[in-house]
Every structure is written in structure tokens, then in C-alpha cells.
Amino acid sequence: MKNIHDEVSRCIIQMLLKEPFFAHLLSGIVRNISKEIPTAAVGLRGTNINLFVNENFFLKELTTTSSRVAVIKHETLHLMFKHIFRMDIHNHDPMLFNYAADLVVNQFIGSWDLPDSAVTLATFPDLGLEPDQTVDWYYKKLAGLANEMRKQSRHFKFDQESGSSGGHAAEARKAADSIDESSSLDDAIKAAEKAADEAGKCAKSAVPGTSSDENSLEDAKDAADEAINKAQKKLEEEKSDMNKDDYDRSKQKLDDLKKQVNDLKPQGKPRLSSDWSNTSAPQSAGNL
């Protein structure tokens, strides 16, 4: 396996050979191999600016030199635009500011290959985001989207995109809440299947060790479990009117769903985004 320090140095050199302009930004930076962040970051530690790199992410998740250089350049651009100093904790939603900052820097990656998880203009196709705008412009657009989605669901937690762990948790809750006294058994089972499916999608997008994702997954599992319990209650209420084979099939289906939901764990890969507010990460760190 490659030495992480040597590989970071090699990728920095690769970038500077093509883009020597960035040399002055990286000349005094402290390189810090750390498990405190899931991907990579720039941030302050004391009076020094640090480049933090997670070894597993850099050597295993990023499989090409081009994608590794893209990550280094991504962090260097955050330094150039002074994003780690521009977020106002009192006036900005930290997560939205992270995405807005990423929308700015990822337009300047050039020929290097960004990881698939990178936040780009294409991440939000319905917003009509214009290229070459400021971080404040993108922030206002994202804040508008977040406010609209919060209005649509009191359970929604903004988490990067419509297919996020927070979005799937909201859909699972909606499915569970749709089952009431007037629901038929068939409708209750379909709603339970829908809730379990959304919980499964939530698990696939939830990144291990990311508290917001793990909380969303717990919410999704709770909602799916509630939906299954409601369907099981309906089944028992109608048992006397059902033939044994139909009852057994429905019971087995719901039992399987419950086990499936209970076994769910976060399976997502770290997303290329920033998190200046992550208190478990180095101060003012921007996590990829």
C-alpha cells in the first residue's frame, strides 16, 4: 500500500507542475493525516492552516491520481476564496454554506476528475443555478430550496439533495403516517413496504460516522417499524375473515420487512462536501 504522506506530496507536486499559481497557498500549510474527518479538509489548528487528509478515503476511495489531485485542488481553492473565514455562524446555516462554497470551487477544478460525490451545479437541476456566481448567491438559492422543502414536510432535514438520507427518512415517515383506522389491509401493507424501501434507500446514502446521516437512518427505521406494526395490527384484526394461506403469506411478508429494517446500517460513501461547523473535526475544517 502506498505511503499516505508520499502520495499527498506526489499529488500536490502533480498539481503544481500544471498550475504553479497555487504554490504560494500551499507553501506554509501543515499536512495532517487524521481520522477526525471522513475525507479531506482545510482548517485552522492554533495559528496554522492545516490540510487534513483521511488515509482510507485518499488511498482507497480515490482510486486515480486525477481524483486525488482534484481533492487537493478543491481544498486549495477553499483557501484561495477564504471560505474558512467567511462563514458567519450567526447568519449562515453551516451545511448550506458548505454546499454553496463547494458550488463555487468545483467549477474551477479543470481537467482533474472530481469524485462522483462532488457537489456541483448538476446536483440541484431544478434550481437553475448559474455558473460563475458568488458563494452568497448560491447560498441564497440553496436557502430558498431548504425553506420550501421544510414547509412541505415537518420531518424533512436538508441533506444535500432530494435523494439524501434526510429526504428518505421524510418519505418513510409519510408512508407510516398514511396508515390510519380507515386504511385497508392491502393499503397498510403497501405503505409498510414503501416505508421499508425508503429506510433501505436511507441506509444506502447514510455515511457511517456522520451524525446527521445516522440520525436520519434511525428516524427512517423508526418510521418503517411503526408502519409495519400498524400493518401487523390490521392483519390480526382481519385474521378471522382470511383463509390461512393468505394470512400466513401476509404475516411472513411483514415479518421479513421487520427483520430487513432492523438489520439496516449506514452504507454510504463519504460525500465530497465541506463542513465548517463539524465540532468533532478540526476548527474551521472544510470536509470534502
UniProtKB/TrEMBL annotation:
The record's annotation in InterPro entries points to: Put_metallopeptidase_dom (IPR025154)
State a single Pfam family of this protein: DUF2201_N
Q: Where is the Putative metallopeptidase domain?
A: 10-235
Instruction: Name the residue ranges with Basic and acidic residues bias.
Output: 218-262
**Region (Disordered), start-end ranges:** 157-185, 199-288
Q: Where is the composition biased (Polar residues)?
A: 274-288
What protein name applies here? Putative metallopeptidase domain-containing protein
Source species: marine metagenome
